[in-house]
């Protein structure tokens, strides 16, 4: 699997919306690809942050810096 393809499916992987086969492919790719693993961890972090946004509407500075870094 190419990183591009992994990136396309990462959203759905984080949301557990992929089929078992697809999820396994992503898992295997992440284990061998630190770049995609970092994106995955970021997405997970983002998801948790969104989930808890009711009691914390301001993202920590470090997180916002990282977000800017990834989006730029
Ligand atoms: Zn990759």
Description:
The protein is mainly alpha-helical and 72 residues long. It is built from 4 helices and no strands. Helix 1 (3-14) crosses helix 2 (20-32). The mean pLDDT is 87. Bound molecules: zinc ion. The site of zinc ion has 6 residues, from helix 1 and helix 3.
Q: Bound compounds, please? A: zinc ion
Give a short account of the largest sheet.
none
So what's the overall shape? Answer: globular
The total domain count is 1
Rg over CA atoms, rounded to whole Å, is: 13 Å
> pLDDT below 50 for ≥5 consecutive residues: which ranges?
none
Whole-number mean pLDDT:
87
Amount of beta strand: under 5%
Count the E strands.
0
Total helices: the number is 4
Secondary-structure element order, N to C: HHHH
**What structural category do the secondary elements indicate?**
mainly alpha
- Rounded to the nearest angstrom, the distance between the terminal CA atoms is 25 Å
Helix content: over 70%
Q: Can you tag this structure with a few keywords?
A:
single chain, 4 helices, binds zinc ion
Helix-strand layout with pairing:
Elements: H1 3-14, H2 20-32, H3 34-51, H4 61-71
The structure holds zinc ion (ZN).
Zinc ion binds next to helix 1 and helix 3.
């Amino acid at each position: 699997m190419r990183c591009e393809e992994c990136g396309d499916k990462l959203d759905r992987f984080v949301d557990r919306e992929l089929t078992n086969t697809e999820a396994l492919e992503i898992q295997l790719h992440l284990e061998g690809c630190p770049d995609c693993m970092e994106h995955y961890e970021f997405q997970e972090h983002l998801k948790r942050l969104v989930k808890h946004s009711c009691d914390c509407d301001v993202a920590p500075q470090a997180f916002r810096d990282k977000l800017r870094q990834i989006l730029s």
